[in-house]
Every structure is written in C-alpha cells, then in structure tokens.
Amino acid sequence: MRRLIFIFIAVMYLAIPARSDNESLEIFDKLKSLIISVSDSIKPAVVHIEVVKKKRDQRFESMGSGLVIDKEGYILTNEHVVDDHIEIMVTLESNREYRAEAIGVDKLTDLALIKIELPEGIELTAARLGDSDSVQVGEWVIAVGNPYGFDRSVSFGIVSGKGRVLNVPSLTPLINDFIQTDAAIAPGSSGGPLVNLRGEVIGINSRGVGRTQGFTIPINIAIEVKNKLLGSGKIERGWLGLVLQPLNRSFAEYLGDPELEGILIADIEHDSPSEKAGLQPGDVILEFDGEKYKAEKDDDLNSFTLAISRSDVGKKKGLKIFRDGKEKTIDIAVGEKPKVKEEEFETPYGFTVKEITDNVFRTYLLETKEGVFVSYVEIGGVAAKGHLYEGDTIIKINDDKVSDFDKFKKLIEKYKDDNFLLFKVIRGKDNRFALMDMSKVQQEDIDDKDE
Q: What residues act catalytically?
C-alpha cells in the first residue's frame, strides 16, 4: 500500500511539473477528503457479527462483518460466517446489539441473508449498492469490516482482477467470479463491503489470501441471491451434470485439430440432463445457447459454469459439441442443480448424521445414496457402545428402510420410547449391525446417581 501511494505521488508530480507545491497539496487534500467522505458514508451500514457455533459436541464463537441493505433490518454477510450457527448477534455502529435470524444461505456463492428485528424509533442506514459489472481493473476501492475485532476498519487499494477462481477446502466447490483486490481483507472482515470512490458497494468481501490479496463476491451476484432468498426462500440454479476440464493445445492435437478450442467433458453424472441427452466423456463443448466457450486453463471454465448456473430450469438449450472429428448440435433440457448444503441431525443417542447429497456421496465414495451418513459418534455414548462408527451409512432401523434423511428423522421419533434400536449399516462394502441399548444406559445413569 505504501508503495502504491508513493508511485501515485511520483506520477502526480511528474504529470503537473508547472504547478506550485500548494496546488499539488490541494489535489492530495481533495483525494484525502474523498476517501474520508466515502468511509464515513459507508461505516453506519457496516455491522459487527458474533456467532455461536456448534460442531460435533464443541461450541465456539466466531466473528465477521455484515452490510445493511435496507432499513427493514436485512443484512448481507458470508455463508461461512453463519454456518453451523446456534446464535447470531449483530452490533450496530451505535453499539446496540440485536439477535438475528438467518433468512437463507447460499453455500455456492458464500452468501447469507440475515435479519434483525428493530424496536420502534430505531432506523438503520442502508448501503448504496453499485453495479459490479462496470467495475474496472485498476480502479480505487475501499474495504470496510471488523478485522480481528477492530470494528469498521478501513483499508484502501485497487481492483487487482476480475472473474477470479478461488479454490477453498470444502465439500462444496464455490461458484467463482470473484473481484480481486489488494485492499486488506483479514479474519473478521468477511461479509463487509468493498466500495468504490463514488460510495457505491461493488462487492461483499469473502476472504483474504496472504497479506495482499482479497477476494470479493460481486454485488450483482449478491443482489440476485438476496432477491431469490426473499422471493422463494431457495436458490434455483441450472444444472447439466457435467465434469469439465480445459482443452489445452496438447488435447487439441491429440483430437486431430491443433486449432480446436472448447471445453473437454471429462465425466457425466448419473441420471443427469447430460446423460439423458446422450453426451459422452471425451466430447468437446464448442457452444452453449449460441455462445462460444473455450478453456485453456481451469480459471477459463468459470464463464461456462456461470452460464449454466444462470440458465432457466426446464428450458431446452442447444449445445454444439465436437465428437469423432465432426461438429454436432444436441438439444438439452436444463435441470435443477441438486441440493449442495446437506442437512445434519443430532440424535439423542450420541451421534450425528448427514443428509446424503451428491457431494457427500461423491466425496466419501459411498455405496448408495439411500440412508443417512454418520458424521460424528460421541466417545462413550450409546451409539459408540452399540458399535456405530463415523463413516457408516444407516440404511435400516429395526424393520424399517431408511430411504432418506427425512425418513430417518421420522423413524427416530417413532422408536424414541423403545429400549432397543437395531441399525443396519453399510461400513465400507460390508453390511453390519449396530444396536442401541437404551435400557443399559438408563440403568448406568441410575447407578451413577446412587454412587
């Protein structure tokens, strides 16, 4: 940042050699006043968020930032800020604290919409939202947030890049279209705004990488997610069921056309729109819905992925491919992207299960999509004593088949008063039994109290 300011000063002096020192100082004073004015205008819309989370049997606190987007109390932040929350508390610039509820989250874009209920007479200052499509690389920006708990800290920088892809450790790959900035985004800044020098919010800060690179979700995407969450409570996205990889020059030569440009289909998901349309691994995508697409490296896949995601579910689209040396157009019906954020359920027997989404199925290499996945077993609890293990897939309780997550919860409720629950599970490739002996646990509890 100091280097940037130094370069700017040097350029300004070279550009205005005939001006007096006083005139030069006036230019810098105007820039300083502009930065201060923008900072002062956005700070009232930035909130401090504290979250109590629970992971397995551990509770812990985390913090982040948020942006007030209207006077009714709606606040945008990151999904990873409020994920696994038990309680969300929001502190305004006035230092008044309010409990917030999560209206909805979108794991794919790392966005969340929360809301606070305000007493009469309390008015919020909403941020002025800009247009992230008009953002230019090199323009000056301000990031505001609560890094390390230092409320409403301001950092200054430039837009370093657009359309960036950021791979983070997660079961769910992000929909990537990040704005990159060298304005500081540190832990606690997540969920705060990135603002241009007109005082318009152009993005919601997501995370920093190293000391000088921050990544911001474009505000246009955030507005789209917010509108969908308020409208239907869910995010509907287009899906074709493709696993893609770039088509570099070596692949092009192998396929017999060194000038071939497109996107290589590496795999097809089972029972997906692509499988039904007859697409095959090894096909090369040339066009989708009349638009040409190509990818030489992983980052280049982003534009095609976004185009699919934004397509209307149920609509037929033309997909031009290259196969066996020839071009071919296939009509394909866009499907709805399967659920990506798996639900979790903490049972009264000392273990927790996850819903088996496509991501869970593929990540853990499970044998079936039916049943529920055991994600946690408490040491010394009923489940552990009954020989249930993390990584098991529960497919049956007593004589009832566990078809899915909702069925499992209903069966747990159905048998809640029974002394014994027999679980049939898949462990690796083998079938096993795990027996919950509640009568033994109840007697042990009585013995412990007598002692």
A: 80, 110, 190
